[in-house]
Amino acid sequence: MQLPPDFFSAIENIYTPRQRHVLLVASLLGLGALIVVGLAQYLTAFVGAGILFVIFRPVWVALVHQRRWNRQLVTIGVLLVTVVVLIIPFYALSTLLIDRLVAFARHPERILDVLHKLEQATGLQLLAKQNVRQLLEQAAGQVSRWLPTLASSALNFLVVVGLMLFTLYYLFMQETYFLLGLRRYLPFRGDTMGELGESLKNNVNANVLGQVLVALVQGVLTGLMLWLFGVPDPLFWGVVAFFMAFLPVLGTPLVWGPAAVYQYSQGQTGSALGILLVGFIVIINVDNVLRIVLAKRMGDIHPLVTLVGLVLGVEIFGIIGLVVGPLLVSYFLVLMEVFRRENRAALAAGKTKKEGGQP
């Protein structure tokens, strides 16, 4: 039997309009939470696509909207640049770092020999063999957790990269609908959306473009310095310095400091002093100068926001948290400022209404 078209509309609903509204919002939040949980292991792909969209969009807009180039060809070119310039080198560097840390964890004899010589030179009792092995295993495991897509299977890595590239392709090809959707469905006013967009641009500029440039310069300088002073494996330690340079407080001293200790344990006192002098005078000052210059040019982000964001982001998102973490902290601060401003405006409006109602 076919139901009449107005059958359901004629049935009385037990919920009030307000209750239906609350249940609708709860249903949306519940379904959204299920989607996020289901895609949790691939979340870095979508976050990475959003970050790359912000990075490449100025170039894409200049070519597509201003010079009228073909939209699809420019988007494919952006994807090729992403693969060749970002994904392949980052995969190679990360794999080198993880493999070498795992090798150190499995065969700590070289580190134990250095510690034994250092004990003889200083007369201090340092870590035991079991402690050294345990520390190395913990370090390798921690780095593997920071880089989950690179430490896991090749299939998972291909899936994550494929999702990221496909999402990036969709964001550029459907740019207008994507931006209109953000404006329509995010629960913020226009000025708040502008503040959030500016915060996103500043964070991406400061924590992607700026940090990568600083890390690259420091990694190269550290590798060259270690090569000049005869430290073994300067290329590997230069890669380690590149990753460590993202930390705004410790950074590359975690690399060239132990290198100086190693040279001292080998009887190379002059080389150890040279590493310390170059590290403190050149590398640290280059880091400070570059960060100040880039902070003014590419996004003024407070160092405390970066530090807290790094700790938060890396723990939750892995290596992509180097950008997402500071962004989350910045968004929290922006929304707190928006709440303060709107709450003050509401209080002022209420006070004005109350005074206007008085005789």
From TrEMBL:
<feature type="transmembrane region" description="Helical">
    <location>
        <begin position="208"/>
        <end position="229"/>
    </location>
</feature>
<feature type="transmembrane region" description="Helical">
    <location>
        <begin position="269"/>
        <end position="286"/>
    </location>
</feature>
<feature type="transmembrane region" description="Helical">
    <location>
        <begin position="76"/>
        <end position="98"/>
    </location>
</feature>
<dbReference type="Pfam" id="PF01594">
    <property type="entry name" value="AI-2E_transport"/>
</dbReference>
<feature type="transmembrane region" description="Helical">
    <location>
        <begin position="154"/>
        <end position="173"/>
    </location>
</feature>
<keyword id="KW-1133">Transmembrane helix</keyword>
<comment type="similarity">
    <text>Belongs to the autoinducer-2 exporter (AI-2E) (TC 2.A.86) family.</text>
</comment>
<protein>
    <submittedName>
        <fullName>AI-2E family transporter</fullName>
    </submittedName>
</protein>
<keyword id="KW-0812">Transmembrane</keyword>
<feature type="transmembrane region" description="Helical">
    <location>
        <begin position="21"/>
        <end position="40"/>
    </location>
</feature>
<feature type="transmembrane region" description="Helical">
    <location>
        <begin position="235"/>
        <end position="257"/>
    </location>
</feature>
<dbReference type="InterPro" id="IPR002549">
    <property type="entry name" value="AI-2E-like"/>
</dbReference>
<feature type="transmembrane region" description="Helical">
    <location>
        <begin position="306"/>
        <end position="334"/>
    </location>
</feature>
<feature type="transmembrane region" description="Helical">
    <location>
        <begin position="46"/>
        <end position="64"/>
    </location>
</feature>
<keyword id="KW-0472">Membrane</keyword>
